[in-house]
Amino acid sequence: KVKKEIPKIQKFNKISFNQISTYQICPLQYKFRFFWNLRTLRFAPMIYGSNLHRIIELILRRIVDGEKISDINIEQLIHQSWSNPPNINPEIVISNQKTALLQVNNLFKKINYESLRDYIFSIEEPFNFTEEEVQINGRFDLVIKQDDEIEIIDFKSGSYDSNQHNKYDDQIKF
């Protein structure tokens, strides 16, 4: 007779918006991922967003180091830094990279981060604080500090529709 071992459930005292969002989408996935520490599949939009954030972070760090955006080969950076889930169709990868190139170019045309170079306080900075004995974890995409003013910038890669916008608002409020 084979004895099945049930994963040990841990006491949970840390939370992030990602965890709350996962629970709202699928409580079972939340249980598997955050209580039983089982690997779960990441959906294509999540992988795309992670890739895009990594590209933007790399570009911003190069700008802080003194590079001009015009000297950065963004297309090459995307190709070198892109990670894909296993067994993904190469045509989808190419399409995603082309879309990412458009989004990144539009972002850096819309906002002149070179002019903000001296005011970039942090890039992809983790944060945490405790509220009612629960540690809240997250990450600021970009923090700009000018004089005594602080601006937190949160990059979004999804399409802009009212449902997605509400989700983004919920994340910012959290």
Question: How would you summarize this macromolecular structure in one to three sentences?
Answer:
This protein has 174 residues and is α+β, with helices and mostly antiparallel strands. The protein has six helices and four strands.
User: What is the number of beta strands?
Assistant: 4
Helix fraction, binned, reads 40-55%
Terminal Cα separation, in Å? 49 Å
Mean pLDDT: 81
Cα gyration radius (Å): 19 Å
Give the amount of beta strand, in percent. 15-25%
DSSP helical segment count? 6
> Given the C-alpha coordinates, what overall shape results?
globular
Major sheet characteristics: 4 strands, mixed
Low-confidence stretches: none
Q: If you had to describe this structure to a student in words, what would you say it looks like?
A:
The structure is a single chain. It is built from six helices and four strands. The chain is α+β, with helices and mostly antiparallel strands and 174 residues long. Strands 1, 2, 3 and 4 form a four-stranded mixed β-sheet that branches. A hairpin with a 2-residue loop joins strand 2 and strand 3. The model has no long low-confidence stretch (mean pLDDT 81).
